[in-house]
Amino acid sequence: MYTVNSQSHVPIYEQIVAQIRDYCMLGLLEPGDELPSVREMSTNMLVNPNIVRKSYEELARLGVIEIKQNEGAVVTPLEKHELSKAHTSFRQSLEQLILNAKELRIEEQQLQSWVREHYLRLEE
Question: Which of 16, 21, 35, 78 has CB atoms 3.0–4.6 Å from 55's, for a disulfide?
Answer without folding.
Answer: 16
